[in-house]
């Protein structure tokens, strides 16, 4: 990226002190919220007697928001800046959490899905603002490592989320009515926490990076979608999020199955924390390894490892299937931040636009679980894991070859005028 995309040299003295801790708090928060879906799915499946496809509407509504909201969120960030965009995202997410109270009171599945959509809209705005902000907040060659570090705290949130949900939601229900209302307290608590973080973020001055309103600079560069490595990265984010979410969504059901581990719902929910915890540990390890080897090479090895583990899980059965699926969390560790930073490489003033496209691709978390759910209903639970297996094969390709930057000819306003 060009020099104008780097942090401004006149940032306040307080900015470096508070910037990264606040960002890591944001990453932690939306990680916890996202992984709670994996507890909500078996919970709501039992409450409303849903099949797998119907239960996966939880992920469809949550991650579908990324597709619908990402481009408008990019416009918000471009107009109001990264910091205000993050504050707005936190407030919207808090409103979504608060909507779980009427959803549980009315005991209506549609209300839950609507609340999840509002919540996810706020998280989408957070991601569109925070992910590129981290990549720009320092030297370009360390962008993958920096984003991997903050994503490690996101994984800490996804590790805590299932433990939080299993203890306060799955273990709290002893009747249909109790199950429906078990979500009210936890989500109201989350709403309050998000509003506190938003209040702190409003008063702390963060470093200014780039110029989100430099329309003249953006007009002289090709649109983001003309960059091949970005488009391939969009597909990589789609299949990665789809695979990660799909595996997490089905893990409680797999671990509860008699031919795998026969765990209770609460015990399976606690075991699920190992899946997300593997990603957390792997991201700290990955941030260290990226000092010694390229991020792309490390991601290639992780993708191949995920393919091997999924193959073992589908063929083995019993406890080996459970442990193989849980171990995929470790392979997932560096994938999202590495794909994200590689795809945004050399986009310059089109970085916000590229970030919006990448966040739209998170809709993979809505669609891939539905595909696997349909396959699980028709062919069985373990055979359905062929869906995430195919996803990891593509990620291995992107890490090995697809991420390479291919130069794009710059079209200036004058040149465009000559052609017309």
From TrEMBL:
Which residue ranges does UniProt annotate as crossing the membrane? none
For biological process, the GO terms are: D-glucose transmembrane transport
Task: Give the matching PROSITE patterns.
Answer: MFS
What is the recorded name of this protein?
Answer: Glucose/galactose transporter
Record carries keyword Transmembrane: yes
Q: What's one GO MF term for it?
A: D-glucose transmembrane transporter activity
Q: Which InterPro entries match?
A: Glc/Gal_transptr_bac, MFS, MFS_dom, MFS_trans_sf, MFS_TsgA-like
Mainly localized where? membrane
Per UniProt, the keywords (alphabetical) are: Cell inner membrane, Cell membrane, Membrane, Sugar transport, Transmembrane, Transmembrane helix, Transport
Bilayer topology: Multi-pass membrane protein
Q: Name one Pfam family in it.
A: MFS_1
Q: Which family does it belong to?
A: Belongs to the major facilitator superfamily. FHS transporter (TC 2.A.1.7) family.
Organism, scientific name: Roseateles depolymerans
Gene Ontology terms: cellular component: plasma membrane
